[in-house]
Design goal:
homodimer; 221 residues; alpha/beta; Arc Repressor Mutant, subunit A; 2 domains; seven-stranded mixed beta sheet; 9 helices; 18% strand; DNA-binding
Chain lengths: 221, 221
Amino acid sequence: MVGSPSGQSIPEATVSRLPLYLRSLQELMDEELSTVSSERLAEMAGVNAAKVRKDLSYFGSYGTRGVGYDVEYLLLHIRRELGLTHDWPCVIAGMGNLGQALANYGGFSDRGFVIAALVDANPDKVGTTVEGVPISHVDDLDDLVSRLDIHIGVIATPAHAAQDVADRMVAAGVTSILNFAPTVITVPDGILVRKVDLAVELQILSFYQERRQAGASLTGA
Amino acid sequence: MVGSPSGQSIPEATVSRLPLYLRSLQELMDEELSTVSSERLAEMAGVNAAKVRKDLSYFGSYGTRGVGYDVEYLLLHIRRELGLTHDWPCVIAGMGNLGQALANYGGFSDRGFVIAALVDANPDKVGTTVEGVPISHVDDLDDLVSRLDIHIGVIATPAHAAQDVADRMVAAGVTSILNFAPTVITVPDGILVRKVDLAVELQILSFYQERRQAGASLTGA
DNA sequence: TAGTGTGAATTTCTTCACAGCG
DNA sequence: CGCTGTGAAGAAATTCACACTA
């Protein structure tokens, strides 16, 4: 989905697994383990060991043969690769159920994504707060984005409003968008978009569920 | 992530795009268009035309050369492939913000995923209703699953509770699980699991956002 | 000895390009 | 003519297997 950026490339597939490794390493830190083998890390992340070693090798040699990887060192390194060494102020647009859930979702602030602003088009919602953050009107996006130095926008509006909100975000200066609305949005070159459609995953499950009557044995991930 | 099921295989990558096509076709139906070219469909789904044609070709020849695809026919066909010709009763475990958002999320029932039951471990929540569906205690999973003929479970609990809930679901007879908890769960062979981690996508955005200062020109999706 | 790092083999996915059909 | 359907080429990702080393 994304062109390879400056410098020589880390495969997209590898990038998409880094967050999994990061989470696993955080668990290992909590358990106060200081080293980890590719095999163990693979098991925790739900992939296989060869993949872990290959993935990590793109960043250089961080392991010790015969021992494994230093948990703390690797954690720091992946965090740096992911750009998670500083906070990212974000704005969420659309304060319906999903928007509220996202605003409340601990997993964001945990990992450096600070909900700096919330916007909605409904005047009744404007002025109320979620998790201590006031809901502003979507017309104030411009001001909020520049004042709070926001680069990342999250769209949690209904599908029909998504493109308009995306346009406003881009105009305001947002350069990365995470889109939860079940529609494709188009943006100018240079703007990054990723999409999550909650129902898509269920449909994929349904596909495999439907066609396994015939004694198929499938493996969970 | 999932072994190829009975019959000759449709590539995983293709399966994961079917929901996109389905959504686009539904929009075309709403606009009362009766045919669509691979190019137009590609644009709507956010992929390229060759991919659309290749994907659809796995199901046989459904297009008309010189014209395109019949919207209604293709829609029906993909819906059948995805197993969406009948309703799937689902249970959601974990009625925090995310669980509530999912229960409210129109995108599910729209597409045949009926929220048949909700469970939580917190006795204070048990007995209240969300969208007209009562919240039951997680101990009643067994009864609910068999009585309501539920095959699909959605986990929206905190990470630490996810494995336990998954075990209970499997014991109760659930065969497909969609896991929103930020942790890997393990299940017996024959149980399908898909995972959605809301924060993972943000971290991937962060990766690319971080490394584009150097005049890189990236393309949004 | 245990476990990394990595070329090479393999598989999967994408894209091309054009023959063939309505 | 316009657009599908598809072999074949190309690219990307995964997996193998083993040399190497702390």
